[in-house]
């Protein structure tokens, strides 16, 4: 910052410079006998300060300082002397002081005073480089090197260190004084040091950042030979090439994209193509459009699909595609593809995502078809209506709908939730498909969910009008067993003889299945006449088409080959679907095989499949949904998510709604791991936290090969080789800006807490243990049970009791992450009931029972966590003890920013479920001390006035200590520094 006054620059406060966020795995000090950062020798209490000049390019540098407790030197201070290339230094006598405050300037009014905070330095040898303090001599060992040489390159690309030291011991010699000698910047992400080993031919070494953060090879130290060696991510490469050697420029262009297709839908055109190849990798594509009155346009995209919207009616458009690599080399143009637009469709209602931080929004999860019936005209029982027992209970599987959900948004708002996670909305097709996970037409909303005046768009807009978000459950991994309309649907063998005519419907060429419309010949909405054929279809690949298998059905009927969908029959083309059944849930085949006969596994490494799915979900992004819950995310390789699907989501939201909306478009994946350890049976590729990270190396341009390469590479590194993060953790009592530079774009459901929620203390302990391996655990979606499982892989809805539920909720609503509740749990709905038994029992007896009876009546809510009015059965529901508990928890969480977006720490905290949280941004500084159920003591906290959000109790802290007595099971205390005091009114638990 430039200063014009000749007087000493203003110093409003003194603060320590904190090093950049580093991998937690590297914080262990070296294991061999060597000291930590050593003070200056007794009797010579000095500080030798080295200052980096290359960035500033000053002709002279002055050190302006004050020993601790002493006076400042006269401006501009004392001139520093040349030390070595790009460094100056000055040794100052500190007398009895143990440190000094310092600023630097060029003697002509240009200052570096650490952004107004000054630098706080200790004694001994110190470096200040671009705002970062370290402890080393950057000019050590820069003279002539004699004897055996070792040139060591160390990579800080993963750790993010801004300086590096090597602490070493030649074989047979002594260790250098900690922290060792400063390494020189070699090139981006690499540091270098050439060492004289004398007669030794090897050395032991450890590396550190000069501020106490070490990489000592997991306490084993590194053994390095003479010659040139690289150390990267704990991998030592002897006789290595110089990683900073200039590479030959890349002048080879990519190949031209192939198989370009263009298809029109109204005034939109979807263009897709197969990926180009390049010697170093394609980074983007340029799509050139000609036609219409607006001239030629060129659009850059990262994926292999472009949805071109807002075109002119009845107009031909021609497209060509070029590939571009990182060096800017451009491929030849592809062959042309042409499409002619049709009529302009009616403009849909405008949908725009709310675009706010998702951590502020607790989530209510509903199975739409089982929540509330707003329109009985779209109810459907399907082929299993009678067999399941649903008919006897007058309970069709498709019962709830968007109209019912719109009608009860105020109920959800009255509970305090501002986000609603709904099950998949695409047209489904199977014998029992109310849940939405058997997608058939991914481009069409299932008509069994919509009504006149209550379309999916109407639901999104109605929720947004109430300040509530819609998170859409999406499936990229699989389709229904009848394939995906528009990509591939199988034709299966089926003769309508005396045995099978009850099952195979007579073909009606003029009828199209939509799940809702009744086909007149059969009288069924679940018509299947379009699926069956006795004539072998053209291009059939199914083995032994129509021949008897030799087996019989349960009824004694003859079974035939190609009668049912199967991955191993050859019925599904390899290009679009995988060809095997899963055998190992933690093996590579979890990616490349079918999970179940009703879940036909997409070959998501194929560009045509990718384009089909990207184009489908672009439609729902355009409608204004606020995020995607990703089903079965673990069954698609992370590299495919990172290369294709996640960038496509970000690109579409950015293009449609802007960068801020894209930043807050919430994607959270189901990476199911049903074990209680940190890593899923040691397989990092099948562990939830793994999916929150970007890739760390390049793989084959072919996505299928890349998936195998990534699997082998990451499992080879093992759990100890995975990245770590401090994004969820306070530094002492201080909030720090999170580093999301390595974030993949996918957050996760907290499977480990979910698995352990049979006891809140277990959930808390297990959650904390995993947080350093998640990119940012403050975004974890946390729930007790769901539509699939209860804690400990239980197949029943949680039945731990009301007090335990209250305790679980108290933890979820104050600990890091986004609290989420499965519909009905607010009244312990269906507790202890089996969650899902398929069509073998009535839905009314399961955890997916119809909830609407509890919502009958009317309710209005103008604010979150409060009902303005309620009548009928819904009023009784809102009066239940857990509902009242939930409402107040939501009121407290909404009023305390630290509980929404804060980092946390248990440092200086005694107690079973106790922690401190803080969030700082702009004028907001929210600091809270929380204990759930048990007593706690907080030490080393900031002094000041704390007010409990539950009781209103006021404590004045003068010695950094605050003790809290046990509030009782399900209760909690939230002492907020300078907080608002009591929030809400006492209820059955919070009092």
Automatic annotation (TrEMBL):
An example of a Pfam family matching this protein is: Alpha-amylase
Q: Which Gene3D superfamilies match?
A: Glycosidases, Immunoglobulins
Keyword Amino-acid biosynthesis found: no
Q: Report domain Fibronectin type-III positions.
A: 253-344
What SMART domains does the record point to? Answer: Aamy, CBM_25, FN3
Which intervals of the chain are annotated as region Disordered?
A: 244-263, 330-358
Q: Does the keyword Hydrolase apply?
A: yes
Q: Which UniProt keywords apply?
A: Carbohydrate metabolism, Glycosidase, Hydrolase, Metal-binding, Polysaccharide degradation, Signal
- Tell me the protein's name: Carbohydrate binding domain-containing protein
Q: Which organism is it from?
A: Streptomyces heilongjiangensis
């Amino acid at each position: 910052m430039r200063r014009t006054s000749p007087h000493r620059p203003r110093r409003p406060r003194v603060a320590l410079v904190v090093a950049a966020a580093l991998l937690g795995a590297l914080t262990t000090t070296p294991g061999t006998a060597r000291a930590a950062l050593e003070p200056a020798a007794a009797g010579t209490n000095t500080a030798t300060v080295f200052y980096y000049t290359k960035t500033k390019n000053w002709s002279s540098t002055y050190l302006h300082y004050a020993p601790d407790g002493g006076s400042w030197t006269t401006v501009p201070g004392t001139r520093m002397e040349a030390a070595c290339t790009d460094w100056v230094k000055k040794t100052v006598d500190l007398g009895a002081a143990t440190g000094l405050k310092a600023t630097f300037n060029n003697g002509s009014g240009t200052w570096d005073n650490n952004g107004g905070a000054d630098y706080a330095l200790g004694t001994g040898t110190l470096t200040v480089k671009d705002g970062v303090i370290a402890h080393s001599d950057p000019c050590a060992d820069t003279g002539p090197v004699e004897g055996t040489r070792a040139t060591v390159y160390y990579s800080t690309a993963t750790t993010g260190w801004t300086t590096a030291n090597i602490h070493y011991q030649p074989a047979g010699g002594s260790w250098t004084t900690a922290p060792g000698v400063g390494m020189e910047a070699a090139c981006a992400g690499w540091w270098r040091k050439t060492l004289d080993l004398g007669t030794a031919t090897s050395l032991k070494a450890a590396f550190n950042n000069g501020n106490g953060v070490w990489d000592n090879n997991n306490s084993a130290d590194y053994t390095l030979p003479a010659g040139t060696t690289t150390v990267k991510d704990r991998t030592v490469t002897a006789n290595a090439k110089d990683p900073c050697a200039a590479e030959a420029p890349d002048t080879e262009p990519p190949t031209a994209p192939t198989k370009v297709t263009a298809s029109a839908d109204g005034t939109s055109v979807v263009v897709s193509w197969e990926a180009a190849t390049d010697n170093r990798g394609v980074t983007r594509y340029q799509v050139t459009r000609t036609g219409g009155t607006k001239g030629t346009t060129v659009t850059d995209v990262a994926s292999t699909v472009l949805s071109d919207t807002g075109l002119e009616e009845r107009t031909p458009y021609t497209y060509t595609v070029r590939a571009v690599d990182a060096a800017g080399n451009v491929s030849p143009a592809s062959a042309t593809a042409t499409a002619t637009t049709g009529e302009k469709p009616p403009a849909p209602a405008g949908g725009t995502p709310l675009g706010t931080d998702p951590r502020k929004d607790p989530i209510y999860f509903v199975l739409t078809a089982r929540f509330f019936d707003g329109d009985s005209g779209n109810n459907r029982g399907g082929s299993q209506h009678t067999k399941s027992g649903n008919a006897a209970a007058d309970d069709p599987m498709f019962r709830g709908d968007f109209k019912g959900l719109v009608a009860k948004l105020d109920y959800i708002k009255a509970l305090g939730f501002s986000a609603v996670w709904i099950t998949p909305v695409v047209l489904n097709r199977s014998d029992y498909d109310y849940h939405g996970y058997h997608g058939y037409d991914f481009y069409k909303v299932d008509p069994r969910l919509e009504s006149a005046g209550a379309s999916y768009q109407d639901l999104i807009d109605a929720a947004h009008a109430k300040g509530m978000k819609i998170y859409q459950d999406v499936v990229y991994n699989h389709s229904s067993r009848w394939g995906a309309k528009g990509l591939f649907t199988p034709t299966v063998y089926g003769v309508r003889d005396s045995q099978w005519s009850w099952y195979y419907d007579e073909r009606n060429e003029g009828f199209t299945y939509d799940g809702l419309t009744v086909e007149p010949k059969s009288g069924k909405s679940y018509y299947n006449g379009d699926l069956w054929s006795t004539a072998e279809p053209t291009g059939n690949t199914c083995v032994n088409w129509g021949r008897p298998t030799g087996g019989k059905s349960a009824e004694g009927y003859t079974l035939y080959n190609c009668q049912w969908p199967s991955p191993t029959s050859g019925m599904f083309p390899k290009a679009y679907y995988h060809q095997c059944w899963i055998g190992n849930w933690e093996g590579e085949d979890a990616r490349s095989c079918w999970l179940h006969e009703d879940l036909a596994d997409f070959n998501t490494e194929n560009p045509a499949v990718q384009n089909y799915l990207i184009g489908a979900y672009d439609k729902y992004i355009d409608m204004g949904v606020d995020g995607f819950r990703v089903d079965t995310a673990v069954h698609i390789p992370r590299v495919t998510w990172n290369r294709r699907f996640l960038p496509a989501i970000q690109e579409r939201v950015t293009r449609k709604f802007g960068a801020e909306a894209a930043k807050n478009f919430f994607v959270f994946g189901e990476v199911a791991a049903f074990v209680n350890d940190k890593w899923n049976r040691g397989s990092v590729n099948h562990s939830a936290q793994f999916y929150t990270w970007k890739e760390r190396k390049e793989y084959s341009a072919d996505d299928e090969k890349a998936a195998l390469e990534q699997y082998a590479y990451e499992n080879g590194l093992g759990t100890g080789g995975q990245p770590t993060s401090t994004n969820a953790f306070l530094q002492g009592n201080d909030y720090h800006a999170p580093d999301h530079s390595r974030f993949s774009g996918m957050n996760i459901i907290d499977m480990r807490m979910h698995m352990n929620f049979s006891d809140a203390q277990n959930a808390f302990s297990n959650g904390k243990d995993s947080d350093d391996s998640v990119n940012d655990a403050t975004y974890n979606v946390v729930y007790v049970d769901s539509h699939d499982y209860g804690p400990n892989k239980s197949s029943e809805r949680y039945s731990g009791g009301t007090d335990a539920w209250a305790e679980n909720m108290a933890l979820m609503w104050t600990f890091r992450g986004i609290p989420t509740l499965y519909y009905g749990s607010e009244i312990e709905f269906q507790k202890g009931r089996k969650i899902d038994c398929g069509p073998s029992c009535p839905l009314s007896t399961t955890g997916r029972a119809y909830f609407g009876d509890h919502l009958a009546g009317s309710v209005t809510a103008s604010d979150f966590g409060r009902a303005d009015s309620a009548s009928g059965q819904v009023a009784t529901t809102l009066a239940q003890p857990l509902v009242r508990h939930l409402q107040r928890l939501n009121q407290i969480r909404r009023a305390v920013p630290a509980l929404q977006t804060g980092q946390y720490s248990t440092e200086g905290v005694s107690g079973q479920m106790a922690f401190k949280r803080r969030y700082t941004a702009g004028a907001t500084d929210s600091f809270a001390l929380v204990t759930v159920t048990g007593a706690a003591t907080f030490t080393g906290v900031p002094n000041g006035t704390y007010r409990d959000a539950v009781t209103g109790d006021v404590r004045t802290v003068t010695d950094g200590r605050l003790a809290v007595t046990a509030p009782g099971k399900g209760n909690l205390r939230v002492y907020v520094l300078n907080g608002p005091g009591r929030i809400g009114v006492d209820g059955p638990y919070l009092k």
